[in-house]
Each structure stands twice: as structure tokens, then as C-alpha cells.
Amino acid sequence: MSSITSRIEALRQLMASESIDAFIIPSADPHQSEYPADHWKSRAWISGFTGSAGTVVITATDGGLWTDSRYFLQAEEELQGCGITLYKEGLPDTISLQEFIIDALPQGATVAIDGSLFSYAGGEGLKEFFTSKGFVFKTDFEPFHTIWADRPDIPGDPAFVYPEKYCGKSFAEKWEEVSAALEKEGANAIIVSALDELAWLLNIRGNDVLYNPVAVGFAYLSTKHQVLFMDAAKVTTEMADYLASNHIELVGYENIYDFLGRLTAEEIPFIDPGKVNYQLVNTIPADIKCVYGRSPITWIKSLKNDTEIAGRKAALTRDGVAMVEFLHWLDTHIGRDSITELDIAEKLREFRSRQALYVSESFGTIAGYQGHGAIVHYSATPESNSTLQPEGFVLVDSGAQYLDGTTDITRTIVLGPLTDEQKRDFTLVLKGHIGIATAIFPQGTRGDQLDVLARRHLWNNMRNYLHGTGHGVGHFLNVHEGPQNIRLEQNNTPLTPGMVTSNEPGVYVAGRYGIRTENLTLVAEAGESDFGKFLCFETLTLCPIDTRAIDRSLMTDDEIAWLNNYHATVYDRLSPSLSDDVKEWLRNATAAI
Questions:
Q1: What is the number of helices (H) and of strands (E) in the chain?
Q2: Distance between CA 448 and CA 389 in Å, rounded?
């Protein structure tokens, strides 16, 4: 019996002892983090699937995993032999998790969750659905305390104060903005649960989640209370002094449940039902008036201030230097030295770590050679690690955390001869990238209204990609942040000046190659006319796009002009920081086509 199947068997035995017929296991932690700390990676532990998104259901005799298109190929590989079936979200013939459970169990069966790992909206939605279908719904099943013998501890690394010279605004200034927004909503308090929102508002950072500089904690802020719920062992003397100077009380992490259970009537807390967990909300006394909606912190945080914008541009310039040094190294060593996918990740860390203010990677490098490039969130392992050859593509998606900004960049790199099909697909993706980069749009436009600009050339050739075209990026915070995005699914958030958003169309041919071109952009003002204000994207990332893969016959004059102008800017901004040989390489890589 494999370790995964033995874990599932242990879970089933515990479920049977508590008369539970189905257990739903999400990817989240009590803060609804996209990337939870190891302590909360229970879905990965029970299934072996290590992708960042997915939900597992275990019954007495069956199991299923629901995940999105980024992970279809990865999930198929990682689930082999464990008895859990992959269900591909977003495809019309895929049954939902709820339908799976209804089909598998009779009415009156018990469906369970750990309420601390589901958002309030998610928990309520499941409860309403299953109880309406005649099932018993249990919200306090916590089996991993029992069956996960070597479970990692809740992170205990010290948190630290994030200096105002990098974040641009003090806690007091941010709280004034947030409290004004709360007042407009009829609330006088807020439960801060999302770790990036906690970090942003209090100007603190940490090392509790790999790649994301956040610290595990909650906060409750109101006209009466300003409380940080965090284990005291994580708080340094410097941070304790900082909290005291801002009149923020420090209370133990788990004490938030008791605190919320003692709230009095003058408190009107604002709750984001997508970010505050189900268990937390259900500890609040029933007579307390709560206001529900999207956290105002989400919106305010997405609008970068002048200090953050200047810092991001500086960080992306240094990151561009590191990327060019890496591209030069790869181009001059491919075919001469043995280079693997894991070598690429290590080399990128090496070049970036030489740059000022470097802290860490912003996510695990995706270096996919040939067919591995078609696995959207591929992560090389010692077992899968491919050796690069002087032919085809390698797709490299990587990024860094610098104290003055977070970066995220993807380049598809030519290693040797390409087919006409590869050049066509690369060019179609580039045309889509340029379509977004050059877009001018009215104030109030949403990302989903622009998404077709990235896809139209692919669609015209009956190609597509199933992930989003763009996501928000935090400031020395999470590499994925909202509320804005650019994708097919409707998102009512208007693109607004100050938002940093990726631009990353792609195409993936299973088993053969993947192509993606990604830059970070800043939503900026384009001008005003009788028809109102118009906005545009300012491209921030500085790094050459591999012109060896371009089929020039498919490019318009305007597209060629954009690329040549972009490359001229890349050379002008980066060349002063490069050695002579790398500078000469960059001159050739950015030569006009």
C-alpha cells in the first residue's frame, strides 16, 4: 500500500468512526490563502496532488479531485494509483463536486467539512445545498489533527515591520482610508483575515509562506479595538515597539475565536464572506449586526501609490538585468554544457540574488522544456527533470520578491531549430500580447471586456488557452492579487489607474511544447476627449522577447513598431548595468526586425 492510499484509508476509518460519509478537503488555510503554509496543505497530503488549486472529496469507497486547466496534466500524473479520479473544472461534461456526492450517497448521509478552511460564503453555500437535498452537513470535522502524525507546525518565524520608504503610507494613513470606506458601508469595524491584507494594512511582513512575505495572524480593527492576533513568539522587540506606538494590542493567534464570541452590540463588523472563514463568522453572537461585502482593503491595496509604483519600476529594472544575464548564459551554454530544467531555476536564483534588495523568488520557477512547457504550472522534480537540447522551446516563468516590488515574467526561449507551426504559434501569442499592451479603453472598462484582444488571433487559427490573460500583482506581497484581472469570466472590477496587472497569453500543445509571453503592466491614464477619460497599459517589464521565433509575415507594421520600440527601451534601460559581453548580446537580442 502506497503512503497516499494508506493516508486515505486512515481518513476513511476516522470518518466511519464519526459516521461521516463524505469529506470535502479544500486547498485553503484559515485565511483563504492561495498558497498556504505547509501546516495546512492537507489536500496535497491526502491526495499527492501538489498544485495550488483543487478540492478533494473522499467517500467510503471513492474519491475525486476538482481542479482547473492549469493543472490537468500535472494532476493526471500525480494522482496515478491513489484511487482519486480527476474531474476537470470548466469543461461542459464535468460533473460538479456536489453532483458527485449526490450520485454517490443516499439522502440522509453526512457530508463534512472543516469550517475553518472554507470561506463563510463557501461554507454557507455548501450547507444550503446539501441540507436542501436531504443530507446532514457537519462543519467541525478536523481529522488531520489525528491522522497526520508528522504534520508541520503552524509557522513560527518572526514577523517584521515593513518600512514606509518602501510602502509609501503609514498604518495610520491606511487605517484612515479603510475606516472611511467602512463608514460608507455602515460598519465601524473589520475582521482582517487574508494574510496579504493583514500585511498591507499593518505594514508588516513575514516568512510564513514560501514565496509570499506574509505572517500568520488575524486582526480586528474598530473605533474601539485595534487587535493583532498573532503568537507572541513571532513578534520581535522592534515589532512590539511598532505595535505599541500604533496602539495595536497583541493577542494570541487562536484567541480571535473567543474575542469574536464576546463582541458587544456597539460593534458592527465588516466581513468579506469570500475571505473570512466559516468558523470565525459563526463564533460571532447572533445579535451582532454584521455588514457583508468585498473587503475595502482589497480595492485600496490594488491602487499602488507613487512610492510603490517607483519601487516596482526600480525592481523590474534590476530584475530585467538578472533576466538578461540569465538569457545570455543560456544562449551561450546551450549545446555546450549539460543544462536541465532544475539548473535553470538555480541559475535564475543566482543571478537575481546578486541584485540589490532581493529577498526570494516570488513563486517556484516554471522551466518546461518541449512537452513540459505544455503543463501550465509545471514544476520540475528530480524524477521529471529534462535535459535541454539545442532545439525547440523552453518556457520559463519566474519572478522575485524585492523589498521595493514583486516581479513575474515569462519568456519562451528558442534553443535551436523550430518548426513552422511553433513559429506561427509564438507569433500568434505575441500578437495577442501586443493587443493588450497597446489597448486604449474607456474609464470603467473591465478586464473581461479586453480579454478577447489577447485571444482573437489564436481563435482565428482555432487555438486557445484556458487560463486567464492577466492577474494583479502585490507589492512585496503575493504574486497573485485581486480584485482586478483579465480573463474570459466576468469580473465587475473596473481597471483603474495604479493597478499592476500581468499580460500573459499563451498556447499549449500537449506533449510537444508550450508558449507564453508575460510582462507586468500598470494601468495608466491615456487622455480625455468629448467621450470621457481613457486608460491604457504602461508596460513595466524590461526583457527581450525572442525574435528568432517570430514569423514576421504574420505581424502588422504597428505590431512590429511596438516590438522595436519596446526592445529599444529595454536596451536603453538595462545596458548601463551590464558587462560588455552581455551588453553586446542584448544589442543583438533587441535589434529591430
A1: 20, 28
A2: 39
Exposed/middle/buried for residue 83 (C-beta within 10 Å: 0-12, 13-18, 19+): middle
Q: Is 71 exposed, middle or buried (0-12, 13-18, 19+ CB in 10 A)?
A: buried
Contacts of 50 (CB under 8 A, 6+ apart): 44, 74, 78, 379
Average pLDDT over residues 216-224: 96
| Residue 112 phi, psi (nearest 5) | -125, 150
Indicate whether 1 pLDDT > 50: no
Q: Which helix (H) or strand (E) holds 120?
A: helix 120-132
Tell which residue, 78, 97, 4, 1, has the closest CA to residue 46.
Answer: 4
Q: Let me know if 351 is exposed, middle or buried by CB neighbors in 10 A (0-12, 13-18, 19+).
A: buried
Q: Which residues contact 533 (CB under 8 A, 6 or more apart)?
A: 442, 443, 525, 527
Would you tell me how many other CB atoms lie within 10 Å of the CB of residue 468?
A: 22
The candidate with the shortest Cα–Cα distance to 593, out of 455, 440, 423, 409, is: 423
* Helix, strand, or coil (residue 291): strand
Q: Comparing C-alpha atoms, which of 89, 144, 109, 92 is closest to residue 19? A: 109
Q: How far apart are CA 76 and CA 144, in angstroms?
A: 25
Dihedral over Cα of 368, 374, 376, 377: its sign: negative
CA pair distance 431, 438, nearest whole angstrom: 10
Cα dihedral sign, 501-484-349-423: negative
CA gap 90, 101 in Å, rounded = 18
Number of Cβ within a 10 Å radius of residue 115: 23
**Residue range 359-404, pLDDT digits in tens:** 999 999 999 999 999 988 888 889 899 999 999 999 999 999 999 9
User: Mind listing the domains of the chain with CATH numbers?
Assistant: 3-147 (3.40.350.10), 160-296 (3.40.350.10), 303-589 (3.90.230.10)
DSSP string for 530-552: TTEEEEEEEE-------GGG--G
Helix 557-574 vs helix 306-333: angle between axes, to the nearest 10 degrees? 90
Q: How far apart are CA 385 and CA 246, in angstroms?
A: 49
Residue 576: how many CB atoms within 10 A of its CB? 9
Query: Which grid cell is 581?
Result: 559581453
Task: Compute CA distances 261 → 218, 236, 258, 273, whole Å.
Answer: 15, 29, 5, 18
How far is the C-alpha of 590 from the C-alpha of 593, rounded, in Å?
Answer: 9
> Which residues does residue 222 pair with via DSSP β-bridges, in sequence order?
189
What confidence score (pLDDT) does residue 89 get? 92
In this structure, are residues 243 and 235 in contact, taking their beta carbons and an 8 Å threshold?
yes
* 264-280 burial: b if 16+ Cβ within 10 Å, else e: eeebbbbbbbbbbbbbb
- β-strand partners of 514: 508
Residue 493 per-residue DSSP state: P
pLDDT of amino acid 337: 96
